[in-house]
Design goal:
The protein is mostly helical. The chain has a single domain, classed as MFS general substrate transporter like domains (Growth Hormone, Chain: A, Up-down Bundle).
Length: about 450
């Protein structure tokens, strides 16, 4: 018996799983946890980092504009990294490529600590994202190939759901380091070098999946088409798979940055409004008057921001972990449908009904909102590897997940323009962008169902 899917597809999904298979899941998940940490550390520190890189007195709207540039650079870098490293993993192997991607995102996150201008920050975010996007493509393919068919949905959700621990690390860093006058945002990025040590464990413990070894040998002997060819993603039935995958990822990324990410801000705004009310600052007061009050409560406001991020992430994590059981029950398409409709409803309710709610209400509303607006992302780790054969699995999964980042990047600027130039409130812009969840419902009409099918060889 090998470590691959030679077990009978019967009984509970975890029956017969070997210690090596658990080890693969653990290491892949750790890589993804640190992967997400490197991405979210900017989210946790951008209100401190970007203003320090711009001239003193720069307006809040301009700071937000440059933060959006850094976000867009991250999305574009992730797209390029996902394609490049996904293709590389099909050619040289999953283990070797995973090591490269982790070293890339660790080193460039650490270098970010020395940024002196906004454009240096944006460039570093681009290169960090290359490693981030590549690691997901490699690890998701490896997990799918090492586990038996009956376990794929569960372990794919566990793998992607582990991302919440990366966000928790970013939240802790935001509270303990960014918000600490003895450290600050530069130290938060400096600790990004630590995941590089994970590569030593990978080099020591992991071997290439048997499925990849067989596919590589077949390609070398001329028995099949070559591995890692991007052109193959647009041939035959794989064209449909690629269009569906890219479309789902685009909608997921666009709603994450245009809807989900704003949920945590409601907790922060509740804290700000409370301090302004206590100081008897009228709503029509100048921004300078408001800033003078809020500056004296900077630490409390930062804690409120991180609390909102924690609540939204926790709900999202539960949604990610439960995607596997749900899609095992009602299928991949059914699970995507339920989550996108849930995201639409929760997005509209939060930003149209609960947008001005007190903190005690948000403690309940934000986890529910997070569950439905983030949970479908686990489906990418479950579904995308099932759409392609082994010789192009890393290429296909990486392409779908990360090209979605490119197409989602304009949403960052659209959201900013809606609020800054077109007069939309945060609630109105997030509500309108929530309608993107409906677009996914249309895409699902063309999506193939992969529940209960063998992983393509």
């Amino acid at each position: 018996m090998t470590t691959e899917s030679t077990q009978l597809d019967s009984g509970r999904w975890y029956n017969g799983i070997t210690s090596y298979q658990w080890l693969v899941l653990l290491i892949a998940s750790l890589g993804w946890i640190f992967d997400v940490f490197e991405g979210q550390i900017f989210v946790a520190s951008m209100k401190e980092a970007m203003p320090s890189l711009l001239p003193e007195g720069t307006s809040a709207g301009t700071i937000s504009y440059y933060n959006n540039i850094a976000f867009a650079a991250f999305l574009l870098g992730g797209a390029l990294g996902g394609v490049v490293f996904g293709r590389l993993s099909d050619r040289i192997g999953r283990t070797k490529t995973m090591i490269i991607t982790i070293l890339v995102y660790s080193c460039f996150t650490c270098v970010t600590a020395f940024a002196q201008t906004w454009w240096q920050m944006a460039i570093m975010r681009f290169f960090v994202a290359m490693g981030v996007g590549g690691e997901w493509a490699v690890a998701s393919a490896m997990v799918a190939e090492v586990f038996p068919n009956r376990a794929r949905a569960a372990v794919g959700s566990i793998f992607h759901g582990s991302s919440v621990f990366g966000t928790y690390l970013a939240i802790a860093t935001g509270i303990l380091i960014v918000n600490n006058p003895n450290f600050g945002w530069r130290w938060a990025f400096a600790v990004g070098a630590l995941p590089a040590f994970l590569t030593l464990w990978i080099r020591w413990k992991l071997r290439e999946p048997d499925k990849w070894v067989a596919a590589r040998a077949a390609a070398d002997s001329g028995q099949t088409q070559q591995t890692g060819r991007i052109a193959d993603l647009f041939k035959g039935r794989y064209l449909r798979h690629t269009i569906v995958g890219v479309s789902l990822a685009t909608i997921g990324m666009a709603t994450f940055w245009g809807v989900h990410i704003y949920g945590r801000n409601l907790m922060m705004r509740d804290a700000e409004n409370g301090f302004l009310k206590t100081a008897q600052i009228p709503a029509d007061a100048s921004q300078d008057e408001k800033d003078a009050v809020l500056k004296t409560h900077k630490k409390e406001i930062k804690n409120a921001e991180m609390t909102g991020m924690l609540l939204t992430t926790t709900g999202g994590g539960i949604g990610l972990f439960l995607f596997g059981p749900i899609c095992t029950w009602i299928g991949r398409r059914g699970a995507f449908l339920v989550y996108h409709l849930g995201g639409l409803i929760c997005g509209l309710l939060l930003f149209q009904v609960f947008y001005d709610a007190r903190a005690d209400v948000l403690w309940i509303a934000l986890p529910v909102f997070g569950f439905w607006t983030l949970g479908m992302h686990a489906g990418y780790a479950v579904y995308f590897p099932e759409l392609y054969p082994t010789r192009m699995r890393g290429t296909g999964g990486g392409f779908c997940f990360n090209v979605g980042r490119i197409f989602a990047a304009p949403i960052l600027f659209l959201s900013g323009w809606m609020q800054k130039d077109w007069g939309f409130s945060l609630e109105s812009s997030a509500s309108l962008l929530s309608l993107l969840f409906l677009l996914a419902v249309v895409v699902l009409f063309f999506a193939p169902e992969t529940k209960g099918k063998e992983l393509p060889g």
